[in-house]
Amino acid sequence: MRSLGIELLVVVIFFLIGAFAAAYFRKWPHSSPLESLQLIANDRLGWTAQAIMFPLAFLATAVLFLLLARQLPETWPRRLGMGAAVLFSAGLLFWLPLSLSRIRYWPIAVELLQNYDPARPVDVNFGGSTFWQHTISVLLGIGLMGAALALSSTLPILGWILSGLAAVSLLVGKFIWHDWPPFM
Is residue 143 within 8 Å of residue 115, measured between CB atoms? Predict the structure, then answer.
């Protein structure tokens, strides 16, 4: 179980590297649509890297959650862990349209930047129609895995803290920030 925890930590670090790979996400908020376009168009490597790294991190997390769940006792903890793996897999499927939209958007951003017209609005929504489904699936998955680890006495305190953070993040993110909390 310890080796799976270390592997999960490596995946989290990989995810964070992906989160900051693109200049677009390192500088926030943007002062104008022009700045958004410049950050995307001038950073093909970083922009593409984050679009590829996110789904890979979600896939690895879903697999690790499944492997963790299989090592839990065959009671509620295992069922919760399996549910967490399923929810994380759903989160991956909801994220794929966003990644594909981001990959497809780079040449559009280059063209929009070359022909930039401040009077014409620029849409920088990258397939956001599945964002909240993804967010809810992933946060519920994190919450279930935390509960599974706590109930199995594997990580009793940290498991409940993880579940609590996921629940608070879901509520704060949805109803106050209207976005994914940066600390998750």
Answer: no
